[in-house]
Amino acid sequence: MADAIAQPEDNPPRSRGMLLAIIAALALGGGGFGSTFLGFWSPSDLLHREPTPAKAAIPAVEFVNVPPVEVIVPGPNSRTLIVQAAIETDAAHRAQVEHLMPRISDLFTTFLSGVDPAAYQRRGVLEVIRAELVTRTRLVLGEEPVRDLLITEFRFK
After folding, report:
1. pLDDT in tens, 4-60
2. Which among 153, 146, 29 is positioned nearest to 87, based on CA atoms?
3. What confidence tier does 98 reach under pLDDT thresholds 50, 70, 90?
């Protein structure tokens, strides 16, 4: 019996291995949480992945130039207003815009000749004129052909 008490058991303590396993689990869990929280990846992406939609082809943009419009602005010092614009459309509607260009030129001339001469001295008049011309151009051509109206020249001579 004395021999049995003097011999130590061969089982090493498991506390060191268990401690390393707990530290590794906490470090990996914290790293996973941090990377998910920062948005590097998402656990839901692992379970459910939606196909990314293909980018829609952007239709080609066409610009149709409106002939320059010259209008005499009445007043004490008579000036000439010169406005040139381009209508943004696509290839499918370009022929329609070009076909109705005389009507659009008439529309521009009629509107610009009706603007009060004092309005040209006010701030923001160009934005107001542009908005009115876009609205009136869409009345002539319709909503679909006219994407936008770009005023390329606006000057007094």
Report:
1. 565 656 665 667 778 888 898 889 888 888 888 887 777 777 676 666 676 766 778
2. 146
3. very high
d(CA 127, CA 151): 10
3-state secondary structure the chain: CHHHHHCCCCCCCCHHHHHHHHHHHHHHHHHHHHHHHCCCCCHHHHHCCCCCCCCCCCCCEEEEEEEEEEEEECCCCCEEEEEEEEEEEECCCHHHHHHCHHHHHHHHHHHHHCCCHHHHHCCCHHHHHHHHHHHHHHHHHCCCCCCEEEEEEEEEC
Q: How far apart are CA 157 and CA 135, in angstroms?
A: 27
**Each residue's pLDDT tens digit, 36-45:** 888 777 777 7
